[in-house]
């Protein structure tokens, strides 16, 4: 469906071109996989680029299965999970320590962009449950933006419907909602992991131009 993240980013940029050259647009990429796409979209739209720091909370018996997500200020959990409060609290503390370290890494040479009264476009390379992007949207909503847009190349139809129902999200742009969705990577020919070092380099090169 997509050759790589560059291809997906170019296709997303085309879908978002109505936001081009608007002074108050901020592209907020979810590290690490969302940054290659976010940089392409921000450059195409002549917009600012920043990162959203959040982490998924994995199921205790399958860490890849997200049961929620956490940011430095918010936490979101699936409605129908039956997981002990002690596990959630332990994971929240552990993940927030990781996020604090990532915050120091990504903002070595600059400060986060203020999001008040901005059109904030939150970008990732694809989503499954949508929990990480939902907690990110909640975090952004608390900063009183003008509008919150979720932009992703691929996601299950049910997840897109869930995002559309969220009161704190104004618009969802999703290029593909395939029927047989198992994982984001199945819809990319090249889906190599993006390291923090690569993501930071993309961000620094964007602002060096």
From TrEMBL:
Domain Phosphoribosyltransferase: 11-162
Keyword terms: Glycosyltransferase, Transferase
Gene3D superfamilies attached to this UniProt entry: 3.40.50.2020, PRTase-like
A single MF term (Gene Ontology): glycosyltransferase activity
Pfam family, one: Pribosyltran
Classification via InterPro entries: PRTase-like, PRTase_dom
Protein's UniProt name: Predicted phosphoribosyltransferase
